[in-house]
C-alpha cells in the first residue's frame, strides 16, 4: 500500500492506512474527543446525521515536540476552532462531516473503516476541495495526522508534526498535477 494520498477526482483526494485493530478501537479514535485530540483535534461530535462537530486544533502541541510551523503556515500556530456538521454516522464503519476550508462551500471528509483480520483499513476521502492549493494542503495535513494516529495506535512516540507536514506538503506539491 502506498502511504501517499491519491487524487481520485478533480476535487477529491483519498488516503488509506492499515492500523492495529480491533475496529471499535480505531472508531473510538475518530469519535472520542480525548482520543481524537491525540492525533487530530479535540472537540465533541454529536453522534447523528445533522449533529455538530467541533475540532480544536493545536498542531504545534500535537506530538509533544512543540515545534513552530514553517513561516508560510504561521497562521496555523496556536489553537484553531473548526465547526462542522455530521453527514453520516454509522458506528463503527462510517463517519462523514463537512469541513470548512478555503472555498465558499465546505468540503467534506469521509472516514470508512473495514476490519481486515486483526487490523483495520481506514480510508479517508476528502472531497469538494475548491482548488489545487487546498488539495495539496489537505493531502499533506491528512498524511501527517494519519501518521500520528498510526503511531498512537501502535504505542509509538510520533515525530514532529510541523517538520513532517512541511516535508509532505512539498511532496504533494510535486505529486498533484497543476491541471
UniProtKB/TrEMBL annotation:
<dbReference type="InterPro" id="IPR023393">
    <property type="entry name" value="START-like_dom_sf"/>
</dbReference>
<feature type="domain" description="Activator of Hsp90 ATPase homologue 1/2-like C-terminal">
    <location>
        <begin position="22"/>
        <end position="153"/>
    </location>
</feature>
<dbReference type="InterPro" id="IPR013538">
    <property type="entry name" value="ASHA1/2-like_C"/>
</dbReference>
<protein>
    <recommendedName>
        <fullName>Activator of Hsp90 ATPase homologue 1/2-like C-terminal domain-containing protein</fullName>
    </recommendedName>
</protein>
<comment type="similarity">
    <text>Belongs to the AHA1 family.</text>
</comment>
<dbReference type="Pfam" id="PF08327">
    <property type="entry name" value="AHSA1"/>
</dbReference>
Amino acid at each position: 500500500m502506498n502511504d501517499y494520498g491519491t487524487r481520485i477526482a478533480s476535487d477529491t483526494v483519498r488516503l488509506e492506512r492499515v492500523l492495529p485493530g480491533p475496529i471499535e478501537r480505531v472508531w473510538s479514535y475518530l469519535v472520542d474527543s480525548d482520543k481524537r485530540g491525540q492525533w487530530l483535534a479535540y472537540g465533541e461530535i454529536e453522534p447523528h446525521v445533522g449533529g455538530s462537530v467541533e475540532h480544536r486544533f493545536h498542531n504545534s502541541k500535537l506530538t509533544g515536540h512543540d515545534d513552530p510551523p514553517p513561516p508560510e503556515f504561521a497562521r496555523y500556530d496556536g489553537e484553531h476552532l473548526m465547526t462542522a456538521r455530521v453527514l453520516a454516522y454509522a458506528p463503527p464503519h462510517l463517519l462523514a462531516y463537512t469541513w470548512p476550508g478555503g472555498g465558499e462551500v465546505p468540503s467534506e471528509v469521509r472516514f470508512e473503516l473495514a476490519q481486515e483480520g486483526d487490523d483495520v483499513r481506514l480510508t479517508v476521502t476528502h472531497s469538494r476541495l475548491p482548488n489545487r492549493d487546498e488539495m495539496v494542503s489537505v493531502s499533506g495535513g491528512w498524511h501527517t495526522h494519519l501518521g500520528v494516529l498510526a503511531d498512537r495506535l501502535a504505542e509509538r512516540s510520533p515525530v514532529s508534526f510541523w517538520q513532517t507536514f512541511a516535508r509532505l506538503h512539498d511532496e504533494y506539491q510535486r505529486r498533484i498535477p497543476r491541471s
